[in-house]
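User: Batch of two.

Assistant: Item 1 of 2:
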Amino acid sequence: QVHLAESGGGLVQAGDSLRLSCAASGRTFTSYGLGWFRQAPGKEREFVATINWSGVSTDYADSVKGRFTISRDNAKSTVNLQMNSLKPEDTAVYYCGYSGRYTNTRFLKTPNAYDYWGQGTQVTVSS
């Protein structure tokens, strides 16, 4: 079992920045994929960003490209999401996901690729 704990959400104004963090613990795999998704009220969970095992390859949703940056520290089993120039439409609950089956970003852009999820952290951006 893998446990994920997100932190860093909050209430900010448009144009501000936030940094989300997610720490993995428990019986982690030797190599694994990580990603961030978000879910707004009444909407499906949507892909935000993902990063491969080595951290060299990343991929982003078009809506966040150039504003968000995903990074990971395998020694600490953490993944971070730096969010800059936040917009009201970024308001959602943000979830980090852990995949023991896929480590390539090509396969990490759908929720079905992930085996474990964190509890989520609320990000609210006011206009």
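Item 2 of 2:
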Amino acid sequence: QVQLLESGGGFVQSGGSLRLSCAASGRPFGSFTMGWFRQAPGKERQFVGGISKSGDNTNYVDFVKGRFTISRDNAKNTVYLQMNSLKPEDTAVYYCAADRSIWGRIGTRSSDYDYWGQGAQVTVSS
């Protein structure tokens, strides 16, 4: 088992920045591929991006490329989502997720992940 706890959400104006953190506990953090998803009201949860176990590889959905950056610090058991140039359409609850698979592929589906955080609200005003 692993527990995930997001922090850093909040309210920001369009064009602003936020950094979300996701702290993990319960198992060696470096054994998990990590992902970030988001869910806006009335919409399905969607993949935002992910990072490999070592942090060497990342994968982003097109609509955040160049604006969002995922990083991790395995010594601190934490993964980060740096969000710049935020837009109102980025408003959503953001979730971090952990994939315990031994494979190194960064999954893009919710079903690829085994553990989830409680979510952090990000609201971007126009």
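The chain has no helices and eleven strands.
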